[in-house]
Design brief:
about 270 residues, alpha/beta, eight-stranded mixed beta sheet, two-stranded antiparallel sheet, 11 helices
């Protein structure tokens, strides 16, 4: 089995991002795959063949992680900035059990069933394309990067150092962060700066490492596109009992969130 390669989710109109990556991202002998298919303009005329909104699928994928989404939202409020994630997620689980999924979603309408926006669908298809390439090329894992990542001075060295630990029994490592989410009390630090995260979940999908095993599970399940990419990935990690980890501090900077890039998610 080959060790790994890089996969860059690239929207072809992001010319400044492409130029930045070409000029600055040096990976020695590792292969870089540019995932440029499924741009929003390319899929616009075939949307009905690619995507059909299904409320039941939404409830399956988003409903199964609603307590995580609510727990994260509560944890970013000033009064809970130091509260362990596990406690907040447990409280959200109790809320859903006591009130029911549909009623709780009405209280948090951002999680109500809805159609995917075309940029969300495009990005989701790009990530799944990367998973297929990881499987087809028999890589042990893939390093997935969206094209808004920004390098730190020591990003490549830090990444090589992380890989050199040869961590056993893992499926997902978030290396870019985002959404204001960082490890907290009760999140075990397994090696310096790497924290075990339970229940397994994403922060964003800007930058992460994913195992061949988890890619195979996702592709074999072959669910229709349903929810934003980060939510779907959290669902898959829960469904397949993935071992998830977050880096803190991160190896990369999430360019869109830090306004180093203007988001084109519209």
């Amino acid at each position: 089995m080959n060790d790994y390669a890089f996969f860059i989710m690239h929207y072809k109109k992001n010319i400044d991002r492409r130029n930045y990556i070409f000029e600055n991202f040096v990976t020695d002998d590792k292969t870089i795959y540019w995932i440029t298919a499924f741009d929003r303009e390319e899929i616009a005329d075939s949307l009905d063949d690619i995507y059909q909104f299904n409320k039941d699928n939404w409830y399956e994928i988003v409903g199964k992680q609603l307590s995580i989404l609510i727990g994260h939202r509560l944890g970013l409020s000033p009064q809970h900035m130091d509260t362990p994630w596990s406690f907040l997620i447990h409280c959200a689980e109790d809320l859903v059990k006591q009130n029911g999924l549909h009623e709780v979603m009405q209280k948090f309408p951002q999680y109500m069933p809805r159609n995917l926006k075309i940029f969300e669908l495009s990005l989701l298809l790009k990530h799944r394309s990367a998973y297929r390439k990881i499987i087809a090329n028999n890589y042990k894992f893939g390093i997935i990067l969206e094209d808004d990542f920004i390098l730190k001075d020591d990003s490549i060295a830090a990444l090589n150092n992380l890989i050199s630990y040869n961590i056993a029994d893992w499926d997902f490592i978030d290396i870019a962060g985002g959404a204001g989410l960082t490890p907290r009390e009760q999140d075990q630090e397994v090696i310096p700066c790497l924290f075990s995260i339970q229940p397994p979940r994403t922060r964003t999908t800007c930058g992460y490492i994913i195992s061949n095993r988890l890619c195979r599970e996702i592709i074999n399940l072959n669910t229709p596109p349903t929810a934003p990419c980060d939510w779907e990935l959290t669902y898959f990690m829960q469904r397949f009992n993935a071992k998830a980890f977050w880096l803190n501090p991160t190896i990369l900077i999430h360019g869109s969130e830090t306004e180093l890039y203007q988001s084109n998610n519209n």
